[in-house]
Design goal:
This protein is mainly alpha-helical. It is built from 25 helices and two strands.
Length: about 575
């Protein structure tokens, strides 16, 4: 019987049932993993708890007013924007990823790289550019009035970019690469045999895409769309510039314009409820489906050659998102940058660029380390607490940057005051503010804010690692930590790189948290652009905005290369 079990194990590539059971029975996992996860979850929950206490301490007399005047319209607009952006990004991202993955046509390799670069354009910069380009005083309407000799706005109709539809268009134009990257990675890893079986059973290429490729890519697509929706919910700069009253815009106005901190915190709780619903929908869309190859042999993707009008159609379909999301905004920025003549501003610009790079690198490193701890601890420990703690670690991404800054500012300032009072009492030495208004506070805020981005990428990578590898390492006497270092981390290098690069790009673009938590005289590129734009120095802001985009290009292209070459045995 034992030899039969071993023979079966050898044929299937799995440990025999009694082997798996004995490994689980004798494995010992240090409680340090649960403690580490608890600490990380506590850090993420800290601003949420502070905001909740602030919202409840403000009293309930403001709720009727919010429910009557602000929340219904803001919530409806937010949901409308999220639904529109999700639909467009899913269609554009998944459609272009399938075309690039499965078909060969002139310019395919270049378009494959170009399709990801709108990710380097912040939403608020895209809004500035398109309002400048398509507004009433912009060059497009100006040229139309001159050509047709129109005198007033009553003489013609032109789509209003400052509208909910305009917000959907702008957000989708720069956020679709989240879905494209997720879909591209999934399509590259899918089994060619499964797709060929569908074709031999009579499925057309379109039918194979709908009935086979999309269901297999559902976990990746759900993760990509979830990131897009959280970006929509968090966006402040673009919707505020476009005059669209979303929850984030209503929160900002309630806090700074209406001077109601408690009301702003209560709106934040409503936004958090939307996030929790979003998480539930995303997890349901993913289900419990995991896919990994059971063979070490891979076949190259059999590209279908396109020619004639089919090739032209594929090129146009892949080129339009690039032009809308990257080329046109960059042309506006380049035009403004060429008119930048303030020589004294160069020093401030390069100082802000260096600060942004430093902050983005520190935030990326911190989030990757925390995400690896969370994902691996959940894998080896399991249980309700671990699942809850890991899910809790992702809520920081959904908090608006202004609310996250407020939620950290209150506890950090309180801790600073307590430490200063203790130092004065014991040593007569005033310490002042040790954490508030320092680089530590900024890195902590960014780590909380972008941990979900890193965690999603690393969890997706870890799901593709067969549990049999853990069992083999532990059976050979390896500790959980050694198994993580020597087995998982080498296999997770593409996922680690993807996670770090995504966080790096997002950190370069983050504005609200940097604006409110930065140390004195510490400017990032985002705050530098904000300061210039608030003074209506758009030509000066153009160069800084263009630099944000250019700095983000290299990591985005590197991320694309890691995903595009992720299929073993193929250079697809």
């Amino acid at each position: 019987m034992q030899s039969s079990d071993l023979s079966t194990s050898g044929r299937t590539g799995r440990f025999p049932a009694h082997g798996r059971g004995s490994w689980r029975a004798r494995r010992r996992v240090s409680p340090g993993w649960a403690i580490a996860v608890g600490i990380i979850a506590g850090l993420v929950a800290l601003p949420v708890a502070a905001i909740t206490v602030l919202a409840l301490s403000a009293g309930f007399e403001t709720w009727p007013h919010l429910l009557r005047t602000i929340l219904p319209g803001a919530l409806a607009t937010t949901l409308m924007v999220m639904a529109g952006v999700a639909t467009i990004t899913l269609v554009v991202g998944a459609g272009t990823a399938w075309i690039i993955t499965m078909y060969r046509f002139p310019g395919r390799g270049l378009l494959d790289r170009l399709l990801v670069i709108p990710l380097a354009v912040p939403t608020y910069i895209a809004a500035y550019c398109y309002v400048d380009l398509l507004g009433y005083a912009g060059p497009v309407q100006g040229a139309l009035r001159a050509f047709f000799e129109w005198r007033t706005p009553r003489d013609y109709w032109f789509p209003d970019i400052r509208s909910t539809t305009g917000a959907i268009f702008l957000l989708a134009s720069v956020l679709y690469p989240y879905v494209y990257l997720a879909a591209r990675a999934s399509f590259v890893q899918q089994s060619i045999c499964v797709l060929e079986v569908a074709r031999t059973l009579g499925r057309t290429p379109w039918g194979t895409f709908i009935s086979v490729a999309l269901p297999l890519a559902r976990p990746a697509l759900a993760a990509g769309v979830a990131l897009v929706l959280m970006e929509c919910l968090n966006d402040l700069g673009a919707v505020q510039h476009l005059g669209v009253e979303t929850l984030s815009a209503a929160l900002y106005a309630t806090w700074l314009q209406r001077s109601s901190l408690g009301g702003a915190a209560q709106i934040a709780l409503a936004a958090l409820a939307v996030v929790l619903i979003l998480f539930a929908i995303e997890r349901h869309a993913r289900g419990r489906k995991q896919f990994h190859h059971t063979t070490g042999r891979y076949r190259s993707i059999p590209f279908s050659e396109l020619s004639g009008w089919w090739a032209v159609g594929a090129i146009i379909a892949c080129l339009i998102p690039v032009v809308v999301g990257f080329v046109l905004p960059c042309l506006v920025l380049a035009y403004n940058a060429l008119h930048f003549t303030d020589d004294a501003g160069w020093t401030a610009l390069w100082r802000a660029a260096g600060n942004s790079m430093l902050l983005a690198v520190l935030a990326a490193a911190a989030t990757v380390v925390l995400a690896v701890i969370l994902a691996y601890a959940r894998r080896i420990v399991g249980g309700p607490f671990m699942r809850f703690a890991v899910r809790l670690a992702g809520v920081g991404y959904a908090l608006p940057g202004t609310v996250l800054a407020l939620g950290l500012l209150i506890p950090l300032a309180s801790l600073d005051n307590r430490i200063d009072a203790l130092s004065r009492a014991l040593f007569g030495l005033p310490l002042g503010l040790l954490m508030t208004g320092t680089l530590f506070a900024l890195v902590l805020a960014f780590a909380i804010r972008f941990l979900a981005v890193s965690l999603g990428a690393i969890e997706a990578g870890m799901e593709r690692v067969s549990p049999n590898l853990d069992a083999a390492a532990r059976t050979l006497g390896s500790t959980p930590f050694a198994t993580m270092v020597h087995v998982h981390l080498p296999l997770l290098l593409p996922a680690l790189g993807s996670a770090g690069l995504l966080v790096f790009v997002d950190a370069m673009k983050e504005l609200p948290a940097a604006l409110l938590l930065r140390p004195f005289n510490f400017e990032t590129l985002a705050t530098h652009v904000y300061s210039l734009a608030s003074l209506e120095l758009f030509e000066s802001a153009g160069l800084s905005s263009l630099l944000i985009v250019l700095v983000g290009l290299l990591p985005v292209l590197a991320l694309h290369q890691a995903i595009a070459s992720g299929r073993s045995g193929s250079s697809s």
